[in-house]
Amino acid sequence: MRRIYTNGNFYTFNPIKPHVQAVVVENGRFIDMGEEHQMLLQWNTGACEVINLYGKTVTPGLVDSHLHLSLIAEQFIHLDLTGVSSKTEMLDKIRAKASNLKPNEWLLGGGWDENLFTSGFIPTLEELDSVAPYNPLFLNRICTHAAVANSKAFEISNYHSTMSIPEGGSIVLDEYTKKPTGLILESASEIFKRNIPQKTYEELLQAMRKAVQFALEKGLTSVHSNDPLFLGGLQQTYQIYDALLNEEELGLRTNLLINHDFLDDLKNAGMYTGYGNETLQIGAVKIFADGAFGRRTALLSEPYHDAPEHYGEAMLDKEALTDIVRRTRELSMPIAVHTIGDKALENVLDVLDLFPAVSHRDRLIHVQVLNQQLINRLVNPSRIADIQPRFVVSDFPWVMERLGTNRSEKSYAWKTLMNHGVICAGGSDSPVEPVNPLLGIHAAVTRKLPGESHEGWNPNEKLSMVDAFRLFTELTAYATNEETIKGTISRGKLADMTVLSQNPFKMQDPDALLETEIEMTVIGGVIKYEKSNQMTPSK
Q: What is the pTM of this model?
């Protein structure tokens, strides 16, 4: 059916027609756009639906270039500790959750961030035991690079002091007793995860359905999501998404980043980057090169300012990283690599330089600490800097303790990257940061949390409102080689749009963006979300 969206304030990001009043959609794509009376006169014939937007502002469909829908789904099932502001509050929530579980049933969840605590530190093993004495407990930190577990979890996982810990991970021990504190870093979590009962396909499907609906509520028309480790592998991940997006037609276009652990599965299944359709596709191969700043596992070229003996940790040595990239290239696929520290980024670029580029672009995810040489190496049409603007407001000011003043001033340098011609894509890394793209855009423009009165962290790196929206629309399309069919409102492109309650491009104060609501999410010309039916994760 042909549809005409009229009486809208369309910002197309298309230089030929940057601002129009109406668009015409047929077979899921834009076929025309312009002044309202002209579009109605020319196209309102036969079987045609006219949709009045009542003057609302419309942008190309918002895209999140990096998140984990499966972990968002877990927030609908498990204990959500996002935003908890003290150790006491965290322990109270754990106690309440444990009271509703059967003995020996796993207490799972995550989202805690000790940097938000106004009092207390990370709960100890003994404190976790006191609030969940009868249940094995495993709770991821918000970054998922750390977790806490209690004694029951250690017991069920058969932990002992001489056991082999997966490469790149560690069980944090008490300095004096040499016994576990309850804190687990990086890949050491695998010791516990392999003992956690797997959810059924139906349980995962139901939770993922809620996560997809939640993303639509936030105005997202496309996401790039990394999930196989949390959804039971490559085949089941694809099966779940196929059921929700292609069979149930929920709409959210999804590009799946596949962990390198499943390279053989990709080969055996005959899957490759671009496999699928315009709704669901296989994307790049996901690799972790380092950790995060919170526990000082992000890999730096110079030592941490607040821990001069530490440089961070490489998740893979050069030989292992090279082998993974070689195997990926044998499948003609790109890589998408978690690189927070400058040394991690350097290591990955060194390996990438050993191999020819493929048709799809490689992605360097996070790139939070930079220098001019690294920026120059990112200026490459085959490389994407996959950035998360909200990290600025979540990590500052405490990250300055990790990096010191000089490095801090050269970090999270989004404007510098864009000014040098680096192709950047905008994401949230949700649930590490909120999935709401307007919060990411606000952070890119202000570089401060809502309510803060300063000029922003490294204010020279602020983006304009237009460039911040481009980051989540036009530019993000390049990350999946879809710039010819996504990212702008143009003839022939997929008819994906986000309808907003206010006009961000006329705001005197960017904080007004925080009060802006998603009125409608349109995918392929079809309304997939309207403000009346909202989903909210349970706490």
A: 0.89
